[in-house]
Write a structure and sequence with these properties.
14 helices; 3 domains; alpha/beta; 6-stranded parallel sheet; 382 residues; single chain; 44% helix; Rossmann fold
């Protein structure tokens, strides 16, 4: 950014004048002696505004990162406030028994089908049990720099729960808001706020070991977008589980970047068929993708579990509705939301301290979609 010399000179002069005032008050304090009451200089928005010859509202908006101000003006005011030692006072707010749920879409303005819809429902149920109102805000891709913080002020929420994988700029702005927040299926390292996440490792390990016990060694993996931490963690869990059993998955065992929903499972099975590398068992990204895979296997004349064993993820209601019923890794969604609400309530009630990370363990729920490898499939591929 180019800063004009005149603007820089003005900033230097007002910083110098303010520093001289601070030195004056400090000198008075030292002359009064060690036993006297010290003089404490409080730097306020009004004082900063007077020194910079702007109104108080402009200073407040600059410190809040209001996009309506020029970047040059924002950086000047922030730099001056830092030099002057300004420290914002925490706002004293009357609790309203309302919480906000920010749902970040993973595809334009549309949230991920299934998972986020279920989590919004669980948030509504959980908030109701706590006698709290729930306000939901959908955050589209690329909207992290918009005026979404208005949602907090307009609904006067006491705290925020974040669903979906928001960006670093989003969390930086969120931390400047006067309310606590908790992120689901994210990490403290990424967000610097309280987080609760489900570890897929135990459930994936259980699935791999069960399939190995049934004679499978060619175990495939189908994933949607690896850019999302939850999906990436499932890939890592699969690789670690296979390595622990002494198996190195071949490249064509893993099909990635398939669409969400039924279409993703259909596309994955067609990919395996085109490569003539159909696994004897497949772990799918989630139950909906798995259902699409089961449909496509049937279309190609393969049955579950007689020809191919299938494991889903999330343990949703459809897992028991399918025939055969679907083995699935339980993501502990209800427990995740309960933990998030509990952590948020603790912060609303005044709990201080560093951000906390809580990890919930996944687990396999075995059903009818896994079977023994038939003799015709001992070679592994079709």
């Amino acid at each position: 950014m180019v800063v004009h010399f005149a603007a820089y000179l003005r900033f230097f002069n007002i910083s110098l004048a303010f520093a001289q005032q601070l030195h004056y008050f400090g000198s008075m304090s030292s002359r009064l002696g060690a036993n006297s009451i010290p003089v404490k200089t409080v730097v306020t928005l009004r004082k900063i505004a007077a020194q910079m010859d702007v109104d108080v509202g402009t200073v407040s908006r600059a410190l809040a990162g209001d996009s309506r101000l020029s970047r040059e003006r924002v950086e000047q005011i922030r730099a001056f406030a830092q030099v002057a030692g300004y420290r914002p006072k925490p706002l004293r707010r009357k609790q309203t028994d309302a919480i906000g749920l920010v749902v970040r879409a993973t595809n334009g303005t549309k949230p991920q089908t299934g998972y986020l819809e279920r989590m919004v429902y669980l948030a509504e149920v959980g908030a109701s049990r706590l006698n709290k109102h729930l306000h939901v805000h959908m955050l589209g891709t690329g909207e992290e720099g918009s005026d979404w913080p208005k949602f907090i002020a307009e609904n006067r929420v006491d705290g925020i729960i974040v669903l979906g994988h928001a960006t670093t700029p989003f969390y930086e702005r969120l931390r400047n808001e006067p309310v606590p927040a908790v992120a689901i299926n994210d990490t403290v390292d990424q967000t610097n706020i309280d987080c609760v996440m489900c570890d897929p490792t135990p459930g994936v390990q259980q699935a791999v070991r069960e399939l190995l016990g049934l004679g499978h060694r060619h175990i495939g993996l189908v994933l949607t977008q690896r850019q999302y931490p939850t999906v990436s963690r499932r890939h890592s869990a699969y690789m670690n589980a296979m390595h622990e059993e002494g198996i190195e998955p071949e490249a064509n065992w893993i099909v990635q970047e398939v669409p969400d929903g039924l279409r993703g499972g259909q596309q994955a099975v067609r990919t395996y068929a085109a490569m003539r590398a159909m696994p004897t068992a497949i772990l799918f990204n989630d139950d909906w993708v798995a259902m699409g895979g089961v449909y496509e296997l049937a279309r190609q004349g393969l049955s579950v579990p007689n020809d191919v064993s299938v494991v889903g993820y999330d343990n949703t209601a459809i897992a028991t509705d399918l025939a055969p019923s679907l083995s699935s890794i339980d993501n502990q969604e209800q427990h995740l939301m309960s933990c998030a609400l509990e952590m948020l309530q603790e912060r609303i009630s005044g709990l201080a301290g560093a951000p906390r990370q809580i990890t919930v363990q996944s687990q396999l729920v075995g059903r009818e979609s896994c079977g023994v490898v038939p003799p015709s499939r001992n070679e592994g591929t079709l």
